């Protein structure tokens, strides 16, 4: 990608940033030029003017002419306020744990810039423009994942962003770790000296949490589709009863997400020669006549992981229906403190840095997504287990004649099921809520905190684990469809099968499959399987093509 020639513009106004735009900047397929809207710059200047007026009055302004947190009772002269901002950044550079992925750094920086673009944080447009230049030029701070309570903002993680603007520390510059001062010089950029309040404006917000939340939300929406796809393919692989997805059933329990999932499964199964229906089972059964008992050769109801799949995936869809607007509101909010109303000339102290909505949203999202992992793991058991897979080979091994020299040597998807069970267990373990673990800290000033950052990081991890579960299951399902005969599958499943086969060949003998899992997980993450099936993006009003 040629980063010197942007091919798209994104104008930030603090009010209209979308999750899709966050993803497009975090995971760039093309260079995006970022800038502040004229209205945002004007509002920012208005709040700056008010800040300077109040500084001249030598009154206590939290974090500007007072200490931070419990130290707010210690007022300093305005002349010291510049050094106070630098010290604020430096004493929070104490994060631990793994370095956040580049996509998280980009999303955090974009969301922080958009929050400041609302124009109530008393920060100069030029300081925010520098932040945007770092995103454009791929100068990314190395942000430790751990250290935020999700209240008083993501102080520790966002300090690494602020430090990059100061020219302090190391960054990843187009994939190479180097001193930020060198990266800025190469890009023709100058570090800033933070004005009073600017350090607090940069770090006292929920942008790091929101970055994880926005990416997890977008990825979970793809998983909702994949769960319905896997259910449709499982129904075909097991010669299952498609009547379970009849509109009458789901209209009778009209949860919107449940109905959407059932409708999508029906659409994906349209034209299938592998599935059956209740009516067809009745036609094929041995009549009871005058007998008191007869054993049916075909189950009239499939197991819960097939029959009740819309009731599981529907919960994820309905959870996303309120998680998405909550996250969208957060990424378009001023989340620092204090806030300056330049229009009315008023200063307001509050707590918009509290990530309570993000924490609740992510705790709920990870539970719903972990249930998808469990659902798909149970479906996989039915597919690979010869006791339940309705005539498929044991562990989906390639068929061999008894006298074939390879007979008995291959174990097919036995190892894949073991891995899938382990990954599922980890996803389920991480589904416990984080937001109930509030810890009073900072001299009992931060005596109730959201833990939203941990919840959002957990949601990211649960999504990633579930995507791996889905990839394993889909490779197994592609194998099962091959064994049943691809020509008998529905048109939509045939297209998906072809997309999987481009990166994961038929398993005709035991071989390593970890690279296949990684490749199919990539198809899920990018939406390639959804597009192959002919289904529109999850955010579209009518995702079924």
From TrEMBL:
InterPro entries: Aromatic_Lyase (IPR001106), Fumarase/histidase_N (IPR024083), L-Aspartase-like (IPR008948). SUPFAM superfamilies: L-aspartase-like. Signal peptide: none annotated. The keyword Lyase applies. GO terms for molecular function: phenylalanine ammonia-lyase activity. Keywords: Histidine metabolism, Lyase. This is Histidine ammonia-lyase. The lineage of its organism: Bacteria, Bacillati, Actinomycetota, Actinomycetes, Micromonosporales.
């Amino acid at each position: 990608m040629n980063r010197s020639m942007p091919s798209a513009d994104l104008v930030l106004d603090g009010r209209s940033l979308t999750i899709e735009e966050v993803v497009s900047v975090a995971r760039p397929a093309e260079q995006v030029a970022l800038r502040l809207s004229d209205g945002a710059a004007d509002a920012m200047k208005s709040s700056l003017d008010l800040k300077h007026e109040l500084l001249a009055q030598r009154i206590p302004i939290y974090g500007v002419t007072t200490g931070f947190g419990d130290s707010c009772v210690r007022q300093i002269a305005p002349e010291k306020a510049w050094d106070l901002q630098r010290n604020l950044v430096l004493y929070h550079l104490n994060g631990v744990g793994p370095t956040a992925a580049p996509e998280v750094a980009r999303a955090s920086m974009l969301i922080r810039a958009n929050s400041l673009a609302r124009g109530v944080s008393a920060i100069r447009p030029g300081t925010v423009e520098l932040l945007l230049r770092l995103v454009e030029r791929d100068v990314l701070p190395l942000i430790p994942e751990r250290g935020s309570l999700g209240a008083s903002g993501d102080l520790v993680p966002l300090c690494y962003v602020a430090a990059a603007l100061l020219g302090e520390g190391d960054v990843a510059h187009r994939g190479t770790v180097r001193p930020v001062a060198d990266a800025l010089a190469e890009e023709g950029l100058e570090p800033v000296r933070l004005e009073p309040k600017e350090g607090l404006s940069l770090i006292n917000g929920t942008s790091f949490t929101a970055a994880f939340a926005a990416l997890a939300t977008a990825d979970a929406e793809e998983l909702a589709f994949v769960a319905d796809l896997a259910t449709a393919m499982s129904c075909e692989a097991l010669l299952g009863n498609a009547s379970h997805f009849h509109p009458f059933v789901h209209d009778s329990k009209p949860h919107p997400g449940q109905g959407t999932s059932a409708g999508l499964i029906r659409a994906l199964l349209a034209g299938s020669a592998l599935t059956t229906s209740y009516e067809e089972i009745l036609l094929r059964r041995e009549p009871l006549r005058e007998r008191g008992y007869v054993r049916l050769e075909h189950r009239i109801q499939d197991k819960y992981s097939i029959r009740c799949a819309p009731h599981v995936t529907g919960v994820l869809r309905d959870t996303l229906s309120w998680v998405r607007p909550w996250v969208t509101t957060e990424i378009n909010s001023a989340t620092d403190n204090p806030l300056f109303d330049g229009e009315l000339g008023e200063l307001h102290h509050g707590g918009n840095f509290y990530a309570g909505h993000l924490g609740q949203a992510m705790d709920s999202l990870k539970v719903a997504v972990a249930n998808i992992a469990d659902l798909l793991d149970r479906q996989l058991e039915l597919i690979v287990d010869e006791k339940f897979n309705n005539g498929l080979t044991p562990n989906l091994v390639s068929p061999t004649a008894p006298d074939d020299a390879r007979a008995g040597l291959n174990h097919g998807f036995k190892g894949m099921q073991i891995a899938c069970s382990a990954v599922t267990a980890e996803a389920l373990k991480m589904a416990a809520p984080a937001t109930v673990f509030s810890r009073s800290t900072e001299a009992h000033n931060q005596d109730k905190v959201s833990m939203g950052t941990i919840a959002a990081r957990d949601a990211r991890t649960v999504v990633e684990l579930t995507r791996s579960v889905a990839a394993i299951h889909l490779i197994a399902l592609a194998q099962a469809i091959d064994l049943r005969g691809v020509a008998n599958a529905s048109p939509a499943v045939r297209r998906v099968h072809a997309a999987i086969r481009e990166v994961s060949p038929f398993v005709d003998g035991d071989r390593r499959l970890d690279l296949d899992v990684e490749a199919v997980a990539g198809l899920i993450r990018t939406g390639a399987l959804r597009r192959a099936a002919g289904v529109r993006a999850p955010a579209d009003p009518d995702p079924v093509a």
